[in-house]
Write a structure and sequence with these properties.
The complex is a heterodimer of chains A (986) and B (203). In chain A, 9% of the residues lie in helices and 47% in strands. Chain A has 13 helices and 55 strands. In chain A, helix 6 (273-286) runs antiparallel to helix 7 and helix 9 (397-404) packs antiparallel against helix 10 (429-435). The longest helix of chain A has 14 residues, at 26-39. Chain B is built from nine helices and no strands. In chain B, helix 3 (38-54) runs antiparallel to helix 6. Chain B is globular and about 55 Å long. Classes of the chains: A mainly beta (986), B mainly alpha (203). Chains A and B meet through strand 30, strand 31 and strand 35 of A and helix 1, helix 2, helix 3 and helix 6 of B.
């Protein structure tokens, strides 16, 4: 009946088995309303609630805002309700987005509720307001939160790997408590911290420890038009996160829990005891030194009469695992909603001491104080405890020590003394675990976030925001006395008793904001205007007296003309205390234009045939800034001897960035095929280099200062596509993305042709045209065959021996020195791609995420590359089997690697020998799930899932882990296998 | 409610003013705060000697090590940088040059600042100020002698320099030397009696 009568003025009511039809005239209802209003009497509101397709929705909760009064719809989606005066009604229904409407001037209110997932997809949260995606003219991506809550990771960064075009994250290890890797949006355009700005419910936060189960949406603002709303903080891109809130009229508990086990995937294979002796003898023989291992030793090692220790096996005492339990308890009524989100995550590392646990509680409330006045009051508390070893407490140190052992060394003496550890160069990693003591760190975060919002009219509201965030940390460490004895049982070393603790510097961030938000359909609903104006102030106070303050004013306008032409413009002015007086304020404007081509009349034939459902062209330009630097860098410091320790720089100011972006969104065949492509260029200038060499006449001690110098260009493109379809019970979608970013230094100093040499390293350089990070080293031409060849070569390092690297003398001056270094490659990931497959058949679902890097050059340094540990005595550790198999010997003169060596060697300079192809493709995540729509009376959407992460990798990388360069050992990268379940209770 | 809104607006407009953004490094001392009395004068004179001439544990500034940087001797210790220089393996940022050029140049920079501000610190006896000032000026002359001896033409600056003014072209060696002798004469004349035997040698 609803469908039939929709277009008419005939209405019906149901009384018993009878349907009573009546004609409604506008005058009638208006008159009726007038009388009722004037007499302040009870008045009847009625209508029908349907979904998008016009199907009536039964049992929809309808509540009068600010009260507990209300009603529900009947089986046919109809409702009626008596009110005394004009109120706001809240319509809410499971799986649909809440809808609020004022009764002013209305008697009949028909409501169409939008599917929650659909609604989420169709709007974009920019941090200050919510804009319909079709009205958007800037480049904003989102992450499907439902997919990440069931992936077993502890740090939210992992969710960004392979899921967003333009965003890269390389993960080097799975150390509990450690950030997996740095996130970059559209390349690196600064020498300072290049991490994107993260805004959670309007507050600046770090991504690290946010529980994905508490997240409603994640949006990534990539281009300047979107990010300029964050002005001076937006140049590295912005991630806007909204947390979950309660739903009116519905009490429910969502639980999600998983248990995961880890398996190392990048363990090095070092040579065994006998081979170690042979290779050492080989090195000594080439170096003309006496051989220490006799044939008898080698024979004994082969027969197992001498130790053959696998040190990594000794220190990895258990299978690393983790479990996670979360519960979101939410509900609401006319007076408001709440959502209490609790999460607990425990990780156990590879030895019995290391691990973390995290408890977080978030309580989000919407309080309808009056009909037009809402208060969003949110509270958050988190405690993260990280347990580490006292010695080498960064978590990787234990592995570095283990790598420096060799297989001929034993863990214990072979005698009757209990725990008789053998120390090698004063080290024994097994003793470090059991006798070295523990180090416990606690990191607390608590937040109060209050957002009163007053609706002056339905279209205009004013919002205040006061938030307070407090971060505290503390650590304590303890070690019991241990005595070490030599082989004769005589004491050699004592690790003395020690117990101490330390309080970290606490930080408190106070943010205040006032916002005026206007949203209105104009020209008979043909156009829509969104307007925001606001101001905010921020104060970050450290307990050691440091303080950073920021102030901003901003305005943003979105205008959609007949849903065809879109305009978006932002003006923001930012001031920061980090910069010198007179240079504190920056102005950041941006403009973008969009064209919804599919809404043009001339496209009618194509759109109505269903071939083209969406075609939007976008173009934007904007200026944004970066202020992500340490405070006070411009201020003078003089020490007690009159030395200038920091040169004052009265011109010290923002890093600036101008960026343009052109892109399109295409939807074909009723949006079965969705395609998005973007190209962009970012020009960053006035880059801050905090260690820039200054002229000695400044009389400063270090002769470096923080200077706005340098220019960098980033150019890139992104393309992503997704095909989704449904065949009977089987629905599927296949998606893919490919993107690349290239960066170039445009100015390295005061003048475009200046070259910047870095203090402390010659492996990197800056000049016009070179990438911001680069491998600047020697080209090589094979290895020296024999003594005769060495003698015949003029350009060589002193003490060169057969099997050493033959460096190319680029300038032909007969000397190998820094002037022969050239640009070899850049370390950035290029041609990043990913592939997603989502399949659903009845109650089964399967999701696969594959991620790859098409081109990357990795550096094989440290013990991953060299046959010894380089540092100190240069003779610790054993070569990897891969090195041993590919080393130079007189019989294999064209080998991959040079000879084996000990001691100082000329082979360790950065050269093309130590660069290797680190491109890879890996199955990032594979998830199989089975859902029960309902179990018993109280359990809904029960889903069991199995997830495997990082378990399959294809790569030619000669090191251990293609997402990481070489090194001297670190906590392993792991594959994770997890079992979990999700359910909604009540 | 309206009052609350007005309050917020006013709060933000005023809070946006610049003094809200003026934050000083709580750990930093400026030169003005440092250079107060006679003791500070004495300290800068002391450190001006110690850092270049009299620090017996700094190998790089020892007189005989300076000789070793010539071809007459050769140090095998990596930290002495001799091997690096012999191999030509250096650039403008190589640490070795700290002891050939930058050390003198940066001392000149700070001596310029001390001399220009030498009237500021409080002293009981003006002759003490003259003595210290004379020593600082004398050291400046000595640094220029060393610099011109090794490098020839170098920037010749006698005023304090900031980031911008510290970039100066080189002045020809002869012009510098010509000025140095007359400057040295002036210094000696101004020194209080008993500090130097200048008067005796002149007569």
């Amino acid at each position: 009946l609803n469908n039939i009568l929709r277009a008419t003025n005939i209405r019906y009511t149901m009384e018993g088995n009878h349907i009573i039809l009546f004609v409604e005239t506008e005058e009638e209802s208006a008159k009726e309303e007038k009388v009722l209003v004037s007499q302040q009497q009870e008045r009847r509101i009625y209508g029908v609630v349907t979904d998008k397709d016009g199907n009536p929705l039964p049992y929809v909760t309808i509540l009068i805002k600010g009260t507990t009064k209300g009603t529900t719809t009947d089986e046919n989606g109809l409702y009626e309700l008596n009110i005394d005066e004009d109120v706001t009604l809240i319509f809410s229904y499971l799986g649909f987005k809440d809808y609020e409407v004022s009764t002013k001037g209305k008697t009949r209110i028909d409501v169409v509720l939008l599917d929650e997932s659909l609604a989420l997809d169709e709007v974009v949260v920019t941090g200050y307001n919510v804009v319909e995606r079709r009205h958007l003219a800037s480049s904003i991506e989102s992450i499907d939160v439902n997919k990440i809550v069931t992936r077993p990771f502890a740090k939210l960064q992992t969710a960004f790997s392979g899921t967003v075009p333009g965003v890269t994250m390389l993960q080097g290890s799975n150390l509990p408590g450690d950030v997996p890797g740095n996130l970059y949006i559209r390349g690196v355009s600064t020498l300072q911290n290049a991490q994107p700005l993260v805004i959670v419910d309007g507050i600046e936060q770090t991504l690290n420890d946010i529980d994905p189960n508490q997240i409603e949406s994640i949006h990534i603002l990539k281009d300047a038009a979107a990010a300029s709303m964050y002005g001076s903080r937006g140049a590295n891109g912005v991630i806007v996160i909204e947390t979950k809130r309660g739903t009116t009229g519905e009490f429910k508990v969502n639980v999600n829990s998983w248990f995961a086990m880890n398996q190392p995937i990048d363990l090095p294979k070092f040579v065994n005891s006998a081979d170690f002796m042979r290779l050492r003898n080989e090195a000594w023989s080439i170096q003309g030194q006496p051989l220490l291992y006799t044939n008898e030793d080698i024979r004994k090692a082969e027969n197992g009469e001498l130790p053959n220790t696998d040190w990594l096996d000794e220190i990895m005492e258990r299978t690393a695992c983790a479990y996670n339990a979360t519960a979101n308890i939410s509900g609401g009524a006319g007076v408001g909603t709440f959502n209490l989100m609790l999460g607990y995550l425990q990780e156990y590392g590879l030895n019995n001491i290391e691990g973390t646990n995290k408890f977080s509680a978030r309580f989000n409330t919407n309080i309808n104080i009056a009909d037009r006045f809402v208060l969003l009051a949110d509270f958050y508390a988190r405690r993260l405890t990280v347990n580490r070893l006292r010695a080498n407490n960064d978590g990787h140190g234990l592995y570095q020590i283990a790598w420096r052992m060799n297989p001929t060394q034993a863990v214990f003496y072979d005698d009757t003394i209990p725990n008789h550890y053998m120390l090698h160069n004063e080290m024994n990693p097994v003793a470090s675990i059991h006798r070295g003591g523990t180090w416990d760190n606690v990191h607390d975060e608590s937040i109060i976030n209050l957002r009163p919002r007053y609706y002056i009219t339905d279209n205009l509201n004013i919002e205040g925001n006061v938030s307070y965030k407090l971060n505290k940390s503390a650590s304590k460490w303890r070690r019991e006395t241990t005595k070490f004895y030599d082989g004769d049982g005589k004491p050699v070393t004592v690790w003395a008793h020690e117990a101490s603790s330390e309080q970290g510097v606490s930080q408190s961030l106070l943010t205040g904001r006032a916002l005026l938000n206007y949203e209105q359909n104009v020209r008979h609903d043909k156009d829509k205007i969104y307007l925001i104006g606001g101001a905010e102030a921020m104060s970050l106070v450290y307990t050691d007296y440091r303080e950073i303050t920021k102030a901003s004013f901003y305005a943003k306008l979105n205008y959609s003309f007949e849903n065809r032409y879109l305009l978006e413009t932002t003006f923001r002015s930012d001031g920061s205390s980090k910069f010198a007086p007179g240079h504190q304020w920056g102005f950041f404007p941006s403009f973008s234009l969009g064209w919804n081509v599919h809404n043009e009349k001339f496209m009618n034939s194509i759109t109505s045939s269903g071939l083209l459902s969406n075609l939007k062209l976008r173009g934007s330009w904007g200026k944004i800034g970066n202020e992500n630097v340490e405070p006070y860098l411009w201020q003078e410091i003089v020490n007690m001897w009159g030395w200038t320790m920091r040169v004052p720089n009265p011109d010290f100011s923002w890093e600036k960035q101008e960026q343009w972006n052109i892109g399109f969104d295409l939807g074909l065949l009723k949006n079965k095929l969705a395609l998005t492509a973007d190209i962009y260029k970012k020009h960053s200038y006035d880059l801050i280099y905090s260690d820039f060499p200054v002229p000695p006449l400044t009389g400063s001690y270090y002769l470096t200062s923080s200077v706005n110098i340098g220019e960098v260009d980033n150019k890139g493109w992104e393309i992503s596509a997704k095909w989704s379809d449904k065949i009977g019970d089987f629905s599927y979608s296949i998606g893919g993305m490919l993107f690349d970013n290239k960066n170039k230094v445009m100015k390295a100093g005061y003048n475009p042709n200046d070259t910047l040499i870095f203090k402390g390293t010659s492996d990197k350089i800056w000049y016009r045209g070179i990438p911001i990070d680069n491998y600047y080293g020697f080209e090589t031409n094979g290895y020296f065959k024999d003594k005769a060849e060495i003698e015949a070569t003029q350009a060589k390092f002193p003490n060169t021996l057969p099997g050493d690297i033959k460096y190319v003398d680029q300038n032909g001056d007969g000397v190998i020195n820094d002037k022969d270094r050239v640009f070899l490659a850049d370390p950035f990931p290029h041609y990043n791609y990913s592939l997603t497959i989502d399949l659903q058949y009845k109650n089964w679902d399967l999701n696969v995420l594959g991620q790859g890097v098409g081109k990357r050059t990795g550096r094989l340094n440290g013990q991953e590359g060299y046959p010894v540990y380089v540092g100190g005595s240069n003779d610790l550790g054993a070569p990897r089997q891969y090195y041993a198999d590919n080393r130079w010997t007189p019989e294999t003169p064209n080998s991959r690697f040079p000879r084996v060596w000990t001691g100082t060697s000329t082979n360790t300079y950065l050269s093309d020998v130590w660069l290797s192809d680190a491109s890879f493709f890996r199955i990032k995540s594979l998830q199989l799930g089975y859902s029960f729509p309902k179990i018993g009376a109280h359990f809904r959407n029960v889903r069991f899932y199995f997830n495997a992460e990082d378990f399959l990798t294809f790569t030619k990388w000669e090191g251990l882990e293609p997402e990481r360069d070489g090194g001297n050992g670190n906590y392993p990268r792991m594959a994770t296998y997890c079992l979990g379940f999700q359910a909604t209770i009540f | 409610m309206k009052n609350f809104i007005y309050f917020l607006l006013i709060f933000f407009v005023f809070v946006g003013c610049d003094d809200f953004l003026d934050k000083k490094d709580p750990t930093a001392t400026t030169f003005e705060e440092f250079f107060v009395d006679e003791e500070d004068l004495r300290r800068v004179v002391y450190s001006s000697y110690l850092d270049v001439f009299t620090n017996s544990s700094a190998r790089t500034t020892l007189f005989y090590m300076d000789e070793a940087k010539s071809d007459n001797a050769y140090s095998r210790v990596e930290g002495d940088h001799h091997q690096r220089i012999a191999n030509g393996n250096f650039n403008s940022n190589t640490q070795a040059f700290l002891y050939y050029y930058e050390l003198y140049m940066k001392h000149l920079g700070r001596l310029n600042t001390f001399i220009a501000s030498s009237d500021i610190p409080y002293v009981e006896d003006e002759s003490i100020r003259q003595k210290y000032k004379g020593i600082l000026e004398g050291l400046r002359v000595w640094h220029y002698f060393r610099l011109t001896a090794r490098w020839g033409n170098v920037p010749f600056v006698l005023e304090p320099a900031d980031l911008q003014t510290a970039i100066q072209p080189a002045t020809p060696k002869q012009i510098i030397l010509d000025s140095l002798f007359s400057i040295a004469d002036d210094i000696a004349k101004k020194l209080p009696p008993g500090v130097t035997n200048f008067a005796e040698t002149k007569s």
